[in-house]
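User: Is it possible to get a 3D structure for a protein together with its bound compound? The compound here is pyridoxal-5'-phosphate. I've pasted both below.
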Amino acid sequence: MTLSERDKKHLWHPLTQHKTSPDTLAIVKAKGVKLWDESGKEYIDGISSWYTSMYGHCNPYITSKVAEQMQKLDQVVFSGFTHEPAIQLSEELIKILPSNQEKLFFSDNGSTSTEIGIKMALQYHFNLGNERKVMLAFEEGFHGDTFGAMSVSGLSVYNGAFEDHFLEVVRIPTPNGENNPKVLQSLENLIKENAIAGFIYEPLVQGAAGMKMHDADGLNAILRTCRENGIIIVADEVMTGFGKTGKNFASEYMEEQPDIICMSKALTAGLLPMAITSCSMKIFNAFYDNDIAKGLFHGHTYTANPLACTAALAGIELLNSEEIQQNIQKVIHSHSGFLEEIKDHPKVTNPRQLGVILAFELNVEMERYGNLRNKLFQHFMGNGVFLRPLGNTIYILAPYVISQEELQKVYDSILSALEIF
Ligand SMILES: *Cc1c(COP(=O)(O)O)cnc(C)c1O
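Assistant: Yes, that's possible. Here is the predicted structure of the complex:
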C-alpha cells in the first residue's frame, strides 16, 4: 500500500471535506526549495509550505544548530524557569522589531499568537478599569482558528457552528487609497457607537483573503485614529513577518507603530511550531502589579521550547545575513520583471507585488471550469510547481533561496496556465 492509501485509514486533515476531496499527496523528502513525493516526482515549493520555510527546507545551518541544542536541553517548564535559547532569541528579535517593542510572550502557533494579542488588548483595558470589550477588525481579515481568532476573522464562511460564541467585533473595509476618507469616517462613527478595546489587522497584505494588498498611508491614518482614541493596536504579522514584504516587518511601512505584534510561520524557519506575541512597555506595565490577578494567566506546556527558540534564532541570523538580504532583493527584482511581462495580458487582473509576494487574479469565466481552483492546482503540480491558488487568485511566495532558473520554472507554469485556461 502507498502512503496515500494508508493515510486514509486514521488521518483527519485540516481544512478538508474528506467526502469530496481528492487523495492526499505523500511527501517523503524536502531540500531547499524542493519537495519530493513518494513516486519520486519533484516540486518547487512556490509557497514555502505556507510561508514558513523561507530559508529553504532542511536548511543545514538551522538543522545543525537545532541538533546541537537537542543534545543539551530539550524542554523545560517556562514558568519559573528560563534558558539561554529564549534569552538569546529575545535579544536578537527585539533588535529587528519596531523600536517600541520590549516584551515577548511565547505560544505555539499563529492562532494562539493572535488569541494572546486579543487577550492582551482586552485585559489591558480591564486592568485599567475601562469598560471596553469590542474588537475592531478588517473585513476579510484572517487571524486563525481558535475562538478569539475566529471571531475577529472576517473570512468565516465555515464558522457557522460557533458564531453564537464569538467576541463582539465591528469591521471596517481596507483602505485602497481612493476610499481612505470614507474608511476613516466609518471608523470614527464606529468609535462613537462602540467601546472599542483593540484593533487587529494584517498589515498591508491579507494572506488568506487572496494576498489582497492595501494602502500604507490609509492604514497609517487608521492606526493614528486608533491611537488617539485609546484603542490598542495589534498587528498580525504571522504571514507578513521576517522579510516577506521587503522589510523585516510590514509594520515598518507605517509611521504609527503597533502596541502588540503577533508572529509565527517564518519565525522558526519552517522547522518547528512556535509563535510569539510581542508588546510595548505600555502594555506590559498595565499587567505589572502587586495584584496577582492583573497578570496574564495564559500559558502553553511547550512555551518557549528550547529547540524552537534555537531554530528561530538561527532563522534570524540568516535573515540578517547579507546573502539572504541579497536574495530577497533578487526575488523582488525578478518578480517586478515578470509582473511587467504579464500585466497587460487579458486574463490577468489586479497584478500586484509587495516584497517577494506576487499575486494576480486569473480573469476567466469560473463556470467554464467547474472547480477552477483545483484545476489550476493540478496544472501547476503537473508542471512540478507547488502553487496553491486561492479561488482564482494565483500567487507566489517562494523561499528566499530560490534560484533564477527555479523562479523561471514557476513563471513558465503560470504563463502556460494563462494559455490553457
Ligand atoms: C496563518 C495565519 C494565522 C494562523 O496561524 P496558524 O499557525 O495556522 O494557527 C493567523 N494570522 C495570519 C495572518 C496567518 O496568515
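The chain has a mean pLDDT of 97. The chain has two domains: 3-60+321-420, 73-320.
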